[in-house]
Amino acid sequence: MAWLSAAVDKAGGPFSPNKSTLQILAFEAAKAMSRLVALYKSLSDDEFFKLRKGPMKSLGVAFLNSMDESYLLGLACKEKLEDLGHAVVVVSRLSKQCIDVGSKFEIAYHNKKQGIIDVGNIDFNSRNVGKAIEKMEKYVNATSALDASLVALNELEVSEKKMQKPKINIDYFNEETNFQRKQVLHFRKISLWSQTFDTSVGLMARTVFVIYARICTIFGPFVPSLTCIYIPKRKALHKKVYPETSYCLLVDKEKYTEHASKSGPIMKASRTEPKNKSLIQSALGNTVGAAGLALHYANIIIMAESSFYSTTSISNESRENMYEMLPISLKHALRRKLKGHLSKDVEESDEGQGLAQGWKEALGEIIGWLAPVAHDTLRWQQESDSQQQKLDSEPTALLMQTLHFSELEKIEAAIVEVLVGLSCIYRYRGRRERLDGRCWL
């Protein structure tokens, strides 16, 4: 670890002009730094507490994915480790260009994963680690500003060439272009562009060790395969992160079972995770993720949610579009279910309004736990895509709180139930003149 500390110490001083700088590789390094900063923030006491008390206890995750705390935390842990692994790949590649560090990072990281190096003495909340995170954030922000300045300069230069022909406002464009060039030079000086490989890798390498130690510490009790980390008493974790006594994800399991019985069939499934697969590939064969329908079903659920809360009648076109989004198997299931609910006798009875109110209450409960999982599915995908394009250091949603690991049969049953309920509500409300007589069919 001596080489790592020395590299980090040099990060605070001026870089040597004789050492090579990142230059164009600054943008790749900035993405890795951004990923590390995001991971660090997501592993704080408060964020881990929010995970346990928020997504881990949400009705949707419990109904659709699992009520097993260890299983869910195992998924969250694997996602954190994979995210860290993406950053490690970049750090390893950049470390080969270092003078002081050389290729020692790869060896040290391998030894750390094997438990050869003791990382228990790394304090996640120490002042030095906090300063390193702040420094990386500044580098990321400056590099992001450099990227924006380069884009703006390119646009000005293209416009300037076009304006040279008619000789219109050429002085204005010259001034703007010169100013933008100065901006580019300024951000190059203060961003990762002008930082040495040793400085950048030193910062990231130490953060990698800090994050790995933190993951092993907070997820260790639930993931036996992680490296065992010894925590001195003076550095003991806050009780809300790692309580001395065991705690249960579902305080009142009977309450959850009662809710589940109202929402449709809740089947149990084997939770044996396939080995040597990435997290996104590890979804079991009976899940929405394995069927490749997570985003598709999330969009259908969100459309149904909008229809449910809409104060106006839903157009025939909107209903038809939603119906056409359904797979053939769901279309058949929806037709069968509608035949049992939408009889002519019931439609014209005085009990119509009461039935409509009953459906409204039932759908409100189902959508209340179903829609958040659908929204998290879209948010996870959007954040995953933006992470490839932008430098964002904010904590993201986790795959375990999306539809990816939801049982396919449960989701399809819930979607059919929601669409049948919407059809009944509109029919019982006396809106038949605005419908096509088939509702969702």
Report a brief summary of the structure.
The chain has 441 residues and is an all-alpha fold. It has 17 helices and no strands. It is flat, with a radius of gyration of 28 Å.
Structure notes:
The chain is mostly helical and 441 residues long. The chain has 2 domains: 2-235, no CATH class; 281-434, no CATH class. The chain has 17 helices and no strands. It is flat. It starts with a helix and ends in a 13-residue tail after the last helix.
Mean pLDDT across the residues is: 79
Secondary structure class reads: mainly alpha
The biggest sheet amounts to:
none
Number of helices in the DSSP assignment: 17
Domain DUF668: 287-379
Domain DUF3475: 24-80
GO biological process, one term: positive regulation of growth
Organism: Gossypium mustelinum (Cotton)
Write the layout of secondary structure elements.
Blueprint: H1 2-10, H2 26-42, H3 45-53, H4 59-64, H5 69-95, H6 104-113, H7 127-163, H8 170-190, H9 197-219, H10 253-263, H11 288-291, H12 294-309, H13 316-325, H14 328-341, H15 344-347, H16 352-389, H17 408-428
Helix pairs in contact: 1-9, 2-5, 2-7, 2-9, 5-9, 7-8, 7-9, 12-16, 12-17, 14-17, 16-17
From the structure above, extract its key features.
441 residues; 2 domains; disordered N terminus; DUF668 domain-containing protein
